[in-house]
Structure to design on (519 residues):
């Protein structure tokens, strides 16, 4: 029975994909759409195949990934540190909490023009932007996870004669780890999108540049191919963060 | 019994967060001002950092001028996209959540589309719809749709078991069940999702306007950036933040009014 439901699930999922491809292809044939408006699925697939063997494509991927990883690590570490301090010390939370809340409403994308003015089209601008985006997600989730740690745990720590710093690191941070991990996953998705968006506005290389250039020269197959690549990388990055967290937390 | 000390304590605990918060804000502004003076002499990469006062003056100037027109243009894009995206997601979510077959066919497709943020769609939207209103509404609608649909599916699927049994006991017809049980549950979740989608929709407005700029706050942001006017760039950013904050506050109020049981810790 379970085998049958599993098989029917796969079949129905494939049916869904088939419907999408059929509608896509059907719209092209029925409306006689131009290739620059909507290329056929086969064309997109062959464009993707062409991208995989081109050197400039891999260069773009590496540029985007490097910007992302650097920004993610910097923003993530700073965010966890500041979030821990805020979560541990209510007085500090009251001082810098409102400032952080106010800045949170200026979404990272609004910073793009400013980072271009300050840092030009260099690597630094994107790293700063990604770090900014990741930082705020991590501060908020870390502070919240630490604030909601079961108070009994802190009391046990105190009873065992642990110093406040030891409690913060050995008890709170560990108890808050699952919350922080889910924040890290959300931050990875946001940071990756921030890289792509920043590359639309001002960059000399990267996947965002690749698809905006393709869009300007109406190479729609390359645009869609690039979108697929960006989506897959985003999903893989987010899965990797989730996997690393699971392994590290020993679930 | 003398309650004065307690009252004083209560007053202090009410005032303390405010005092510290104001101190933090003043400290941040002071830090910003000091940085502005320090970086003025050139040197570092950030060669142009205006003081908070300059940005404030620019904000006032902007508010006297085209701010309201830009804001109206951005809000229009946002609201149309947000409503279309939420309504579409509610309908699709109900269908996917209620019918196992439709869920099995289209659920995986929604899952595959979700990691591709609407921002990735910007270049394609430009090819399809040009730089006008339509392409931005499409992008915002897509962003909102991809967030809200998860909530809608969840709401349509998760009917409390006791209510379900009650419905069976009352001998409700499928249509009655749908109207009395499924729809309210799903719409509640849609409302929650619509609020979560508020910020991602607003962020999409920014990116869409930065790339496909004709009117709006994002178009202004790009225009002043191209004339290297850092103070005006920062003033526009403040406008984006303020608008997002106000919308969030308004919708919070609305949510409290529409779904009071979520906030009073009662059942459900």
């Amino acid at each position: 029975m379970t085998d049958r439901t599993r098989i029917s699930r796969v079949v129905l999922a494939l049916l869904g994909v088939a419907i999408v491809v059929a509608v896509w292809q059907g719209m092209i044939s029925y409306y006689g759409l131009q290739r620059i408006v909507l290329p056929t699925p086969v064309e997109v697939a062959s464009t993707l195949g062409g991208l995989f063997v081109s050197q400039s494509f891999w260069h773009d991927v590496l540029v985007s990934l490097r910007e992302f990883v650097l920004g993610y690590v910097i923003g993530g570490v700073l965010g966890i540190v500041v979030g821990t301090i805020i979560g541990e010390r209510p007085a500090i939370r009251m001082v810098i909490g409102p400032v952080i809340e106010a800045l949170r409403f200026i979404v990272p994308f609004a910073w793009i023009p400013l980072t271009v003015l300050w840092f030009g089209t260099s690597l630094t601008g994107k790293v700063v932007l990604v770090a900014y985006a990741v930082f705020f997600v991590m501060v908020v989730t870390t502070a919240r996870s630490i604030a909601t740690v079961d108070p009994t745990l802190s009391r046990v720590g105190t009873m065992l004669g642990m110093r406040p710093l030891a409690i913060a690191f050995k008890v709170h941070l560990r108890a808050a780890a699952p919350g922080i991990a889910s924040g890290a996953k959300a931050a990875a998705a946001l940071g990756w999108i921030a890289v792509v968006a920043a590359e639309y506005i001002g960059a000399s290389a990267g996947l965002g540049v690749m698809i905006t250039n393709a869009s300007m020269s109406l190479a729609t197959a390359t645009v869609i191919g690039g979108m697929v690549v960006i989506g897959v990388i985003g999903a893989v990055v987010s899965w990797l963060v989730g996997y690393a967290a699971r392994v590290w937390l020993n679930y | 019994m003398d309650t004065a000390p307690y009252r004083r304590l209560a007053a202090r605990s009410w005032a303390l967060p405010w005092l510290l918060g104001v101190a933090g804000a003043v400290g941040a502004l002071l830090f910003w001002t000091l940085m502005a003076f320090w970086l003025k002499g050139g040197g570092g990469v950030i060669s142009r950092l205006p003081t908070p006062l300059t940005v404030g003056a620019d904000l006032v100037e902007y508010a006297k001028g085209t701010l309201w027109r830009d804001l109206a243009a951005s809000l229009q894009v946002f609201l149309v996209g947000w409503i279309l995206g939420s309504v579409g997601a509610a309908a699709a979510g109900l269908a996917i959540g209620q019918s196992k077959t439709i869920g099995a066919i289209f659920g995986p497709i929604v899952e595959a589309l979700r990691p591709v943020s609407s921002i990735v769609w910007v270049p394609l939207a430009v090819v399809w719809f040009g730089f006008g209103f339509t392409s931005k509404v499409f992008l915002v609608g897509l962003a909102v749709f991809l967030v809200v649909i998860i909530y809608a599916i969840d709401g349509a699927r998760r009917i409390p078991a006791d209510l379900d049994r009650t419905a069976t006991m009352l001998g409700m017809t499928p249509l009655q069940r749908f109207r009395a049980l499924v729809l309210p549950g799903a719409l509640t979740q849609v409302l929650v999702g619509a609020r979560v989608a508020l910020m991602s929709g607003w962020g999409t407005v920014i990116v869409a306007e930065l790339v496909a700029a004709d009117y709006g706050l994002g178009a202004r942001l790009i225009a002043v950036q191209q004339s290297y006017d850092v103070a005006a760039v920062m003033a526009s950013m403040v406008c984006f933040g303020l608008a997002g904050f106000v919308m969030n506050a308004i919708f919070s109020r609305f949510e409290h009014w529409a779904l009071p049981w979520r906030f009073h810790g009662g059942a459900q």
The domain at 52-262 of chain B is CATH 1.10.3720.10 (MetI-like fold).
